[in-house]
Amino acid sequence: MANNSMVESRHPWKAWVYLAPALVLLLVFTVWPIINTVRMAFLENYSGLKAAGGAHFRFGIGNFKKVLEYKRFLQCMKNTVIICFLTVPISTMLALLISVALNSIKWFQKFLQTVFFLPYVTNSIAIGMVFAAMFNIVGSFYGTENELIVTAGIINNVIEFFGGHAVNWINYGSTYAANITVMVIYIVWNALPFKILILLGGLQSVNKQYYDAAKVDGTSRRRIFTRITVPLLSPMIAYVVITGFIGGFKEYTSIVGIFGENMGPADDKGRLNTMVGFIYDSLSTNSQGRASAAALILFGLILIVTILQLWVSKKKVHY
Fold this sequence. Notes:
Blueprint: H1 2-9, H2 13-41, H3 48-52, H4 62-69, H5 73-104, H6 109-117, H7 124-135, E1 139-142, E2 148-151, H8 154-161, H9 176-204, H10 209-216, H11 221-249, H12 253-259, H13 275-284, H14 288-316
């Protein structure tokens, strides 16, 4: 015991020396930006250029008032909430079903895992551009007999092949519902790889004796799924749901990838703007105070939703 205490107390400063580079980076690039964001949020009409010129700013909540009074703010919040509460449940359920299917396909599992994981390691903007091309109405041209031929795009061609009618998904004159549908499809598809990876890892760690006992009792697959698989995976499900909501509230790149910097169709620029997009817009106009206030509002929204989810998970999650 004496030797152990002597070893533990010998040269403790060495540990701090080894940790110093990481601590310095953490303080400079994480802690200080958070503190500075809070500071700028409460300095009314704060601007980096004005501050560099020696301007002084009054302490108050004027930046928060400006954010809440901004005509597009409620639309940004509405888009963010809709995207979250549509994409997270859909992507989680699909990921759970795909994970169960992959877990039962042993001979082809590695290849399918790689295929499903590819979107996670691909640039979001590049994927968004591909989706934009798929849903885009390419244009029209005159055929050999001078008839007008409209090229509706890949997705619309598939719809028309099965007897449906082409839909204006993202172009000039498209509806808000069509725009949101495209975004939900893309975000769900992009969110699946990470969730499948987590849930599949959880499935592979489940004790197979539960399934063997259920098969001996003649339990149906549906009951095995609802009474064994879901309860045993509940910690992983809770994790992907919480992280899914956090990621959903920070959604931005997917919308830029499909609609560009306009964040919407040409006739209604900014229609699909989100809270993060609002923050970037404020930064582009050198309104750091307003951007910081919006960031704190977004942080508070994420915090409230996360606390509610943790409260629910205490009752529903089985460890």
